[in-house]
Amino acid sequence: MPPRVRAPELPQNYPWLNTEKPLSVKQLRGRIVILDFWTYCCINCLHILPELKYLEQKYKDSLTVIGVHSAKFDHEKETENIRQAILRYDIEHPVLIDSGFKVWQDYTVRAWPTLIVIDPEGYVVGSVSGEGNLDILDELVEKLIHQHQEKGTINFQELQLTLEKQQKPLITPLAFPGKVLATTAGLFIADSGHHRLVLSTLDGEILHIIGTGKPGLVDGSFHEAQFFAPQGMTFDVENQILYVADTENHALRRVDLQRQRVETIAGTGKQSRNIYPHGGAALEIALNSPWDLQKVENSLFIAMAGPHQIWEMNLESGTVKTYAGTGAEACVDGLLHESAFAQPSGITADGKELYIADSEVSSIRGVKLVEPKIVRTICGSGALFGFGDVDGQGFEARLQHCLGVEYAQNFLWVADTYNHKIKLVSPNTGNCQTILGDGVAGLQDGQGKNSHFYEPSGLSVIDSSLYIADTNNHVIRRVDLNTLMVTTLEFTGLCAPDVCIP
After folding, report:
1. Can you tell me the distance from the alpha carbon of 329 to that of 331, in angstroms, rounded to the nearest whole number?
2. Do the beta carbons of residue 192 and residue 176 sit within 8 Å?
């Protein structure tokens, strides 16, 4: 609790989202205000959004939350990209775009996320950083309400806002698809924004919709099951089983195609706060934002974005454990127990080594499955702020928040998400080259670098086709690897859950 100081005024000439007009500290006198300093790449920032939503709903007549978006990556400085993030994560409070870190500096913020509490008289009365502070904030807000009720300085009235999702409802057939998986059984799509999975033929004919489209953690038939922003998948061809990283449920799900049933196989549905290496019975251990999966023999390897680690689930024993990473957010090569990752978000394998899209250090990492079991950096700077868009060798190459990686024919296809490109990396030499996209965000089919993408996040190869989850375009793209021609896949009869008529 810092000493009570007057809250610096918020800039009125900066872009604001989720509100028709800028808000000011002066205008909000009589209300409690929480400023949430965030950047939309940051997993820790995403983790506190449900906590803020809880507080907003509990104290809707006396509390205003304002997101102050202070961007880490260059790509995150653009207003439209932030608008898309607001839609993707269903943010329902005003967001101020903090150009040039002015508000960050005014409030002497030092880390993402940081929450600043302003009382109804316009004074800063609290500040916390990081995750897991819901109880502290809840207690402080309640205390402030009682204090200012007695003083007569609080006004109880719900603030009316015009949200981005009200102005542009998301009714596309797919919504922010995070990952895609091409298999002999068909094309699996993590329709993340619609909280469901879609299975089609490789040409786009719908075979199954898995999940109701409502966020939740419910097992059962394909029509009963519920997911919450599912992401990465891996497929057991022999047993016709799809494994799913159910990211915002902090769980792993098993989809049985033959029985048409979904069941939870790991996680408790609650987010783990334990960042240290540990493990145990899969259904008794809390997970933390599993983002992608890769099956190798009888193990599921998990890109566990939340604690910055790689985990392993033994499918025979039903146990999970940390495989690599100390839990520190960094890029450290070496032995498994000494290594460090930074929000690993994509995973693939060649049988002897895992390959990781390590998003916050904008690098591709290798994790050996055979002796000597070590972690290495294949390409990218390996630094939290060492990002860019440079083709080249090893540490000279630059990526920007890469989220997807796929091994095929001795090479790695990489979704260089914030550069709107697809790149090809040699795991042996570390050479990284742009193959698809020219770096301009958009939706344009074409050959090679003449195509446009918008935050592509996942990719999958089968035969001579590469499938791409073109996340912010809400579509799946298909690439003929013989010609490098990019086309947008059409899904006949697919529609958004709220639009479909049973």
Report:
1. 7
2. yes
> Which token pair is 320?
């999970």
- Rounded Cα gap, residues 66 and 29, in angstroms: 14
Nearest residue to 125 via CA among 103, 97, 145, 104: 145
CA–CA gap between residue 270 and residue 36 (Å, rounded): 22
* DSSP of 383-426: STT----B-EEGGG-B-SS--EEEEETTEEEEEEGGGTEEEEE-
Cα 490 from Cα 498, distance rounded (Å):
20
pLDDT digits (tens, 9 = 90+) for 182-221: 999 999 999 999 999 999 999 999 999 999 999 999 999 9
DSSP type of residue 274: -
Contact predicate 379/364, CB 8 Å: yes
DSSP string, 237-256: TTTTEEEEEEGGGTEEEEEE
Q: How is residue 250 written in tokens? A: 């902090």
Alpha-carbon span 54 to 491, nearest angstrom: 36
Query: Angle formed by the axes of helices 49-58 and 134-151, to 10°?
Result: 30
Total residue length of the chain: 502
Query: What mean pLDDT comes out for the span 363-375?
Result: 97
